[in-house]
Design brief:
CATH architecture of the largest domain: Alpha Horseshoe
Distance between the termini: 89 Å
Helix content: over 70%
Number of strands: 0
CATH topology of the largest domain: Serine Threonine Protein Phosphatase 5, Tetratricopeptide repeat
Amino acid sequence: MLKNWFVFTVVVLFLASCSGKKTQLAKEKFKQASNAFSNEKIDTAITLFSECIKLDDGISTAYFNRANCYVAKKDFDKAIDDLNTYIDLQPSHSNAYFLRGWAYHFKNKTNDAIKDYTKAITLKPDYTDAIFNRGMEYFAIKDSVRGCNDMHNALNFGYKLAQDMINEACTNK
C-alpha cells in the first residue's frame, strides 16, 4: 500500500512539474509574441500566441493579443473567434468588447458593433472611443438622435473629433 502511495505521489509531482514547465514555456512564448507584435511582425506574433495557447490555454490575454493581430491583418472572423473566447474568460474587460465591436464594424454588422460598444461603455462609462464609434454606427443606420447624443457625450469627455461630427450631422442647417 505504501509503495502504491509513493508511486502515485511521484506521478503527481512529475505531472505538476511538467505543468509548471509548460506554463513557463507558455509565458516565454507570450513575451516573444508580444515583442513580435510590437515590431509589426504580425504573422510571427500569431504563431507564437497560438503556441502559447496550446501550452497553456489559461493565459487568456494571449487570445486578446492574437485577436489584435488578426484585426491588424483584417482577418475579422478569427479576431471575433478569439475575442469570444477571451470574453468568456474575462467578461469584464471593456477593451475586448471595443475590439470586437471594431471587428463587427468592418464586417458591416452594425447592430453587433453597437451592442459591443454599448457593453464597453457600460463597463467603462468614460470610454470615449467606444462612445464615438457607437455614435458613428448609429449614424450608419440613420439614427441621428442617438448618434448626436453619443457625439455630445464624447465631446463632454474631451473627445475633440466629436465636434466635427456635431457640426456636420447634428446642427440644424
